[in-house]
Amino acid sequence: MRASTLSRLAAIGLLMLPCAALADLMLFPTRIVFDKQRAAQVELMNQGKAPETYRINLVNRRMGPNGEFIAVEQPGPGEQFADAMLRYSPRQVTIPPGGSQIVRILLRKPDGLADGEYRSHLQFDRVADATGASSVEDVARRGSADVGVVIQALVGASIPVIVRQGDTHATLALTDLAVQPPSASGPGTLSFQMKREGNRSVYGDLVASFTTTAGVTLEVARAGGVAVYVPNAARRVQLPLQLPAGQPLPAGTLTLAFRERPESGGKLVAEARLSLP
User: Fold this and answer.
1) Residue where a domain stops, chosen among 116, 141, 165
2) Is the pLDDT of residue 72 over 60?
3) 205 with 157, same domain?
4) Are residue 256 and residue 122 in the same domain, yes or no?
5) From residue 30, how far is each of 152, 185, 225 by CA, in Å?
6) Predicted confidence band at 272 (pLDDT cuts at 50, 70, 90)?
7) E strands, the chain, in order
């Protein structure tokens, strides 16, 4: 196969992650919660050097035991979707380089809606460019002897859209703390369970700190924007430990705290401790 043909081959990818930035797409905010309001909006920002087109859809996903998302069509026990209550516009956008686009979302709750939390995800899928060097037809028109195969990596992102109705509440416990020391294969980790009860999800930041027997305290791990969604009762988590020079923790006390995000007040939701000999 000719080198020029090889240069036109690339892997296909579709990456669906609920994150703030993915490739050249920036999203703000990264989650929407309808509590008392009936309208919201998301801003899409193109940080790249070329125009990008995104197709927008509402999809339903289930959180797995390790925090992964699984596409689903039908709700399981205790699972409630929000897509039937949501309207959004536009359905597709083309954003110039350095530009932005607002997507507006409207909520219409039906009469007699049961108390609880309903969730769907707003999905932004990048649409492949079919012009210029990315067009198979264009390659053929140029009379190239190369195989006319052009494959682009497609990148997408999604954000949760949550609707809360009536009396919603949740509690969280951090349990089963265990520390795995660093090894040749990677840094040390803190593993634990996040156990949720109630009819709403929990969302916030995790911070692990360590206090030596001499009373010196340092932060050893942090993860922001961590959720346990309804109906999940638990989520397994592993946090990489940031230890000085990769050394194991000495004797002391490790404290793990889960707090609301700063914009929600930063309230302490749950805390647990582990004594290390």
Assistant:
1) 165
2) yes
3) no
4) no
5) 26, 33, 9
6) very high
7) 14-17, 21-22, 25-28, 32-34, 39-46, 52-59, 61-63, 69-71, 86-89, 92-95, 100-107, 116-126, 154-165, 170-180, 189-198, 202-212, 217-228, 234-240, 252-259, 268-276
Tokens of 70: 């699984």
Q: pLDDT for 148-177, tens place per residue?
A: 554 445 567 899 999 999 999 999 999 999
44 burial (CB, 10 Å; 0-12 / 13-18 / 19+) is buried
CATH of the domain at 66: 2.60.40.10
Which residue bears the tokens 């350095």?
A: 98
For residue 20, what pLDDT is reported?
Answer: 40
Q: Are residues 206 and 238 in the same domain?
A: yes
Q: Supply the pTM of this predicted model.
A: 0.80
Local confidence band at 249 (pLDDT 50, 70, 90 cut-offs): confident
Structure confidence at residue 51 (pLDDT) = 93
What the block records as the tokens of 198 is 């109630």
As to burial, measured by CB atoms within 10 angstroms (0-12 exposed, 13-18 middle, 19+ buried), residue 57 is middle
| Predicted local distance difference test score (pLDDT) of residue 15 | 30
Amino acid found at 237: V
**Structurally, how many domains does the chain consist of?**
2
- Looking at the fold, whether 149 and 187 belong to one and the same domain comes out as no
Model confidence band, residue 141 (pLDDT cutoffs 50, 70, 90): low
Name the residue range of residue 227's domain: 170-276
- Mean pLDDT for 43-69 is 94
Q: How many CB atoms lie under 10 A from the CB of residue 65?
A: 11
Q: Of 165, 181, 203, which residue is a domain's last?
A: 165
CA 40 to chain CA centroid, nearest Å: 19
* Residue 161 token pair: 């859209």
> How far is the C-alpha of 226 from the C-alpha of 109, rounded, in Å?
27
